[in-house]
Amino acid sequence: MWKQHIVGAVIATFIIAAGISFNPFFAAGSDEHHWGFKRAQNGEQAEAGAQLDQLLDKYGAIYKGKADKKIAYLTFDNGYENGFTESILDTLKKENVPATFFLTGHYLDSASDLVKRMVKDGHTIGNHSYGHPNMARLSPDGMRAEWQKFDGKLRELTGIDRTTYARPPEGIFNAKVLEVGNAEGYRHIFWSVAFKDWLKDERRGADYAYNALMEQLHPGAVILMHTVAQDNAEALPMFIAEAKKQGYTFLSLDDLVLEYEDFPVALQSPAPSL
């Protein structure tokens, strides 16, 4: 509970500071950024480059933790259900590992029981927009409508008042998306580990997913996986076990935010509330 209060205070302080420091007449660039980075190798962190690093840092967006701690953060993008999320949730519960699920409005409607289980198991729900549009091509009102419509549906379904972490569909964004998101109380979370895993009918096997994850694993890794892939569901137990064997601890995005703001974080993830 103390951690939730601290994280809430951190986010509130950040939003207030953002409101003071951001020039309301600033014309954010309309160019679209497609999130990408130099992949991690041999335990070295992924790098997005100075330009993207500066842009994200300006708006408090995060894609990795600190390089001196063997901590990893699991995140999943769920646009639609393909039958493997339950297995993923079973693995997370067995291994006592927290995760954040970035959901769309379609998922709230079509997989409501799984959403309720995510919340019951103590995981975080992130805002992946309601209709999965290109956020960079929306007006500020359009952006707000996407996030708020999702939050309204989530509130009806789970009682959660709102989300605080957002992720743009397909990783497409611009400065205006980050700026408007901050003004509405959302912090954007990108990722530093990913691989081609979103094609539901393209099986490559559990070893493919496992190897892709292990090859890119690095201290502070924010890992993106898609729940539509059977490969991911099958590889996840092996990946978590091997990462723990190598000394990694899995923490939540709340812990990542605390670390980003230079608050001390626990080195052991809390047990999910059941």
TrEMBL record:
Residue ranges constituting the NodB homology domain according to the UniProt record: 70-251
InterPro entries linked: Glyco_hydro/deAcase_b/a-brl, NODB_dom, Polysacc_deacetylase_ArnD
Membrane-traversing stretches: 6-29
Superkingdom of the organism of origin: Bacteria
Key words of the record: Membrane, Transmembrane, Transmembrane helix
PANTHER family: GLYCOSYL TRANSFERASE-RELATED (PTHR10587), PEPTIDOGLYCAN-N-ACETYLMURAMIC ACID DEACETYLASE PDAA (PTHR10587:SF78)
Protein name: Polysaccharide deacetylase
Native source species: Lysinibacillus boronitolerans JCM 21713 = 10a = NBRC 103108
